[in-house]
Design goal:
The complex is a heterodimer of chains A (494) and B (211). Chain A is α+β, with helices and mostly antiparallel strands and 494 residues long. Chain A has four domains: 6-53; 98-134 and 196-272 and 362-441, 3-Layer(bba) Sandwich (FAD/NAD(P)-binding domain); 276-359, D-Amino Acid Oxidase, Chain A, domain 2 (2-Layer Sandwich), CATH 3.30.9.100; 447-493, no CATH class. Chain A is 42% helix and 21% strand. Chain A contains 19 helices and 19 strands. In chain A, strands 1, 2, 5, 6, 7, 8, 17 and 18 form an eight-stranded mixed β-sheet that branches. In chain A, helix 6 runs parallel beside helix 14, helix 7 (143-151) packs across helix 14 and helix 16 crosses helix 19. The longest helix of chain A is centred in the last third of the chain and has 27 residues, at 416-442. Chain B has 211 residues and is mainly α. Chain B folds into two domains: 1-125, Rna Polymerase Sigma Factor, Chain: A (Orthogonal Bundle), CATH 1.10.1740; 127-203, Winged helix-like DNA-binding domain superfamily/Winged helix DNA-binding domain (Arc Repressor Mutant, subunit A). Helices cover 67% and strands 0% of the residues of chain B. Chain B is built from eleven helices and no strands. In chain B, helix 3 packs antiparallel against helix 4 (58-75), helix 3 (33-55) crosses helix 5 (86-105) and helix 9 crosses helix 10 (176-194). The chains are: A alpha+beta (494), B mainly alpha (211). Chains A and B meet through helix 2, helix 3, helix 4, helix 5 and helix 6 of A and helix 3, helix 4, helix 5, helix 6 and helix 7 of B.
């Protein structure tokens, strides 16, 4: 940053004017130059000349003739725009308010806020917690979610936190052991499983770096309604006074018990009964190099490496046995790890370094994700059993879809209702097949059936085994892999 | 139509084609499609030439240009003429959209550039009409050719490839300070060769209204 002495400061900013005019400055420096331009007439004058020179450059370029049809198309597009009536879904930006208020700053909220802020919107991001902050989680970011982190420019930070890439998966069930490598998508072929203290802070930082205004330790207590539409939120910082903030749209990224969803009475559909309860802890001295999946009787176990060279091990029990599990959480957790002799032996040589945590509160449902002045993203709108560990990558995908729809709606490029209806459709289409598969696996039903039959048929078929793991990782479409033709092909080859 | 009558009063008299940019942008903010088409007639070729240079693909460049003009249409109401010129705002959008498309193509950072960086340029009075009218393609080429190669390189890396000063320094193995001054000196030299310096200089510092 330039120094405080006015004359030197002027010289240093003037040196940046060329880079400024050519859009070659990162955000922070650009803002600093603009602040200087506001008070420096000489730099403003110089900039006018530099921009003239910049815009003269294309006049010397070799380009085809500008097609005449482009003018007509622009005209048509303008007529269409003039015909779009004002929508109900997104309000006008209130004076002094925000384009969007995002309630919840974890895996769905922070990326939504980041993507909107990167598109130039004024975003307020709120969370009860102060970051870094832990939360109950499966930890696993499937490769499809990792690919989004890479696209958002955040994968390097996650990798630099010390949690290793996990390109391999291994499964032990129904007397069969399979292992393989996840097929790549968008150049990414590995899961990661960072601690949530690590991941959530990276996501929050990215939202702030993109320009979102963050208030941590802030509890939203009520929504503000105006003309039958959500127009903002009321809430307070810890020990602070109640304040009201206004926005064109309020996004509920506040998890499966979303206050936003409850206040707007978002309709629930396709709900299924809760299947499992899930508990986990972290281990030293139990190295894991793959995502390991075990199923035996009505128990399932998942193990994978996380930060600090530790391994996170989760156990799933049927929900109806929750009382029994709760009777001796540590003992039952520990005994479940005997599911596989190899795992039991490794665990015996290691040490559990944190308490066992978990929850029986694992519902399965969809909520209608938008209405007048509100939208839901992540678990607030679509929640499912953690047994297939899709939550984080689903939240990332939903953030991408919702941010694109809100951009179109806020910008007026598309009718707000149409844009948000598209988000709802895309979300459901993208998630439905995995929702069905997750609900099927979460029953922990050990009886022979379609899944055990498939697992047996995959023995010795490495290519299809890899693709099977790709389904979990989100790099191979569920509907494609589980299509009747594909299953017939796999069974026939066995 | 009453709305239209009011509009004319806001925007000034005569045909849109005769209006200055700040009159045009006010009319566009009030959703006058004729003003929008006038803007297109004024800067469409410039926008297309830049998009085509970045994308090397006619139909992708057309899409970028149409997108950019529609963005101006939708956000004109929020545009503050004291903060910069309409042309600079438009060209910023074209540049960012086109660079964004190239990054999506390379499937890295898709959507990330987008319009995050569209801030107005805080410029002063615009003399584009006077400058552009007198400039021929060959003149621009000669001016570019007259640039010292090291200045020309950094300008092109920023302008046509969307690199930041730090990325340019990395790519060319040049100290950051040198990159900064080459970017500025390169543009200044172009400005002088093209005679744009005199044009803007005639307005004098006092004429530049603070934003």
């Amino acid at each position: 940053m330039p120094s405080r002495r006015p004359d030197r400061e002027h010289d240093e900013y003037r040196d940046l004017l060329g880079a400024y005019a050519l859009w070659a400055l990162p955000r922070a420096e650009r803002a600093a130059v603009e602040a200087h331009l506001r008070v420096c007439a000489a730099c403003r004058l110089e900039l006018v000349g530099l921009e003239l020179a910049r815009d003269a450059l294309p006049l010397g370029l070799e380009a085809p003739r500008l097609p005449a049809s482009l003018r007509d198309r622009l005209r048509l597009a303008l007529d269409r725009e003039l015909a779009i009536p004002a929508g109900w879904a997104v309000g006008p930006r209130p004076a002094g308010g925000y384009d969007a208020i995002v309630v919840g700053a974890r895996c769905a909220g922070s990326p939504t806020a980041m993507l909107l802020a990167r598109r130039g919107y004024r975003v307020l991001l709120l969370d009860k917690a102060r970051f870094p902050s832990d939360t109950i989680s499966t930890h696993l970011i499937q490769a499809a979610g990792v690919a989004r982190l890479a696209r958002w420019g955040l994968l390097e930070r996650v990798a630099a936190s010390g949690c290793p890439p996990i390109p391999r998966m291994a499964m032990h069930m129904a007397g069969v052991s399979l292992s393989g490598t996840v097929p790549a998508r968008d150049g990414v072929a590995a899961d990661y499983a960072p601690r949530r203290t690590v991941l959530d802070e990276i996501l929050v930082d990215a939202a702030v770096a993109a320009g979102a205004e963050l208030r941590q330790g802030f509890t939203v207590t009520e929504l503000v309604w105006e003309d039958g539409r959500v127009a903002g939120v009321r809430g307070h910082a810890r020990g602070g006074e109640t304040v009201t903030e206004h926005a064109s749209i309020v996004v509920g990224a506040d998890g499966r018990h979303s206050l936003v969803a409850r206040r707007v009475k978002a309709g629930v559909y396709d709900a299924r009964p809760a299947h499992t309860c899930c508990y986990y802890s972290y281990w030293d001295g139990v190295p894991a190099e793959a995502v390991e999946l075990y199923a035996q009787g009505e128990r399932a176990v998942m193990a994978f490496p996380t930060n600090e060279g530790r391994t996170c091990i989760l156990v799933d029990w049927p929900r109806r046995e929750f009382r029994q599990f709760r009777g001796d959480v540590e003992g039952n957790y520990r005994r479940t790890l005997a599911i596989d002799p190899g795992l039991a032996e490794r665990v015996a040589g290691g040490r559990r370094v944190e308490p066992v945590r978990g929850t029986p509160d694992l519902p399965n449902f969809y909520r209608k994700p938008s209405g007048p002045g509100w939208a839901l993203v992540g678990d607030a709108g679509y929640t499912k059993d953690p047994v297939t560990a899709q939550g984080i990558s689903d939240a990332f995908r939903d953030a991408d879809l919702l941010a694109a729809a809100l951009d179109a709606a806020l910008d007026g490029r598309e009718g707000a209702e149409a844009a948000l209806a598209r988000h709802a459709r895309q979300r459901d289409e993208a998630s439905r097949p995995m929702y069905e598969l997750t609900n099927q696996i979460a029953t922990l039903n050990p009886e022979p059936g379609r899944i055990t039959e498939l697992v047996h048929a995959l023995r010795g078929n490495q290519a299809e085994t890899d693709r099977f793991f790709g389904v979990l990782a989100g790099t191979v479409p569920v509907s494609e892999f589980l299509s009747p033709e594909n299953l017939r092909r796999i069974l026939a080859a066995a | 139509m009453t709305e239209r009558a009011e509009l004319t009063e806001h925007a000034g008299h005569g045909e849109p084609a005769e209006w200055a940019d700040d009159q045009l942008v006010r009319a566009i903010a009030e959703r006058d499609p004729d003003a929008m088409v006038t803007l297109y007639d004024r800067y469409g070729r410039l926008a297309f030439a830049l998009a085509y240079r970045i994308l090397a693909d006619g139909s992708a460049a057309e899409e970028v240009v149409q997108d950019a003009f529609l963005r101006v249409w939708r956000q004109a109401a929020a545009f503050d003429v004291r903060r910069g010129t309409l042309r600079s705002w438009l060209m910023t959008i074209v540049h960012h959209r086109a660079i964004d498309v190239t990054r999506r193509r390379a499937s890295r950072g898709g959507g990330d550039v987008d319009l995050e960086a569209v801030s107005y340029s805080l410029a002063g009075p615009d003399v584009w009409g006077e400058v552009a009218a007198g400039i021929q393609r060959d003149q621009v080429r000669a001016a570019v050719a007259a640039l010292p190669p090291e200045q020309r390189l950094v300008v092109e890396l920023a302008y046509f490839e969307g690199l930041t000063h730090v990325e340019i320094a990395d790519r060319t193995g040049t100290p950051l300070g040198t990159v900064k001054s080459r970017l500025r000196l390169g543009l200044k030299k172009l400005q002088e060769t093209l005679g744009a310096g005199e044009a803007s200089g005639t307005r004098g510092i006092d004429a530049v209204t603070p934003p």
